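Q&A FORM
Asked by: J.P.
Topic: structure of Pentatricopeptide repeat-containing protein

PROVIDED:
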Amino acid sequence: MSRPPPAPAGPLPNATFSHLFQLCANGGRAFLAAGRAAHARMLVSGFVPTAFVANCFLQMYARCAGAAHARMVFDVMPHRDTVSWNTMLTAYSHAGDIDAALALFDAMPDPDIVSWNTLVSSYCQRSMFRESVGLFLEMASRGVAPDRTTFAVLLKACGGLENLVLGVQIPCIDSKDGLGG
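REPLIED BY: S.T.
REPLY: Here is the structure written out as tokens.
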């Protein structure tokens, strides 16, 4: 028996490039080939991606191919927004490349609370508790308001440092900032 001929390349029914990239990103490495095919299809079709679509395929490469491949995509993106920078920061953090994450963070035009939390958390996940607390202090000195995630990670860092004095002060900062709910 012979196989039917492949379907002609036409518009993608009931799917958008952003949706396809998100599905592939959620599927992980097993979906890298499908994500690359969708990316190639996008390029061949002449579709000019918005920042949102570009961030979706950046995230797909970060999750499916790793930080190094995602960085190649990031470097050729014509427009990078905070989401683009945070996606790369997260990719480096997940890869355990703290030096690359820190260099990228230092190059960010306008890091937001997600950027700060990603780096504070990355230090903490690698048992670099002093660095985690130090970055929190730097964040505060720059006037960046912490959020609940910041405090949760900071408490974990205090536990890792076995610093009860610092740890009991965190809920006081949390309440003073109106996050103590």
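FOLLOW-UP: The CA atoms of residues 58 and 72 lie 9 Å apart.
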